[in-house]
Every structure is written in C-alpha cells, then in structure tokens.
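Record type: monomer structure entry
Structure origin: computed from sequence
Chain ID: A
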Amino acid sequence: MFRRSEPTDCTITWEGEALPARAGESLAVSLLAAGVTAFRQTPVSGSPRGPLCLMGACFDCLVVVEGAQNVQACLVPVVPGLRAGIQRGARGFGDEA
C-alpha cells in the first residue's frame, strides 16, 4: 500500500509486535507502511476500520496509545518506543484508560 522514501530510524510496538517507523511521522503512516490496515473494530458489529482521511476529520483511525483510548492515529507523532494497539468497540463511561 505505502512505500517509504526514507529509511526507518526507530521502532514502535503495535499489538505487542515491534514495527519499523520514523520519529515524527504520524502513527497512522507508520502502521500503514508496516502493512497494518485495521486500526479499530466497530462497537456494534466488530468490523475492522482503518484510516480514511489522514487529517483528523473522520475518526476511523481510533487506536489505543500508551493506554489512552480513542486516540486518532493520524494526529499522533511517532516517538521511539511508542506503544499502541487496536481500539476494540466503544469506550464506556468510567472505563479505565
């Protein structure tokens, strides 16, 4: 899907797996470049969703970042060692992050 024009310079952890990334690029771009296309599961059917707009307007790239739920991956800059995972369903009131 995506091909990098520059070499990677760090790694991030997605669902427990180390993936190559570049510091400063968006988490969504790092995941897409690593072949990840499903970023979240819908609350009702559990259908996979991935980024659509890559500019923070659509909310289809919601992920869990460092334990915080409902984070837009397209707006998160990569830092070395960043830990993220799939957003499963909807966060309920009072859920732990």
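Annotation 1: The mean pLDDT is 89.
Annotation 2: The two ends are 31 Å apart (CA to CA).
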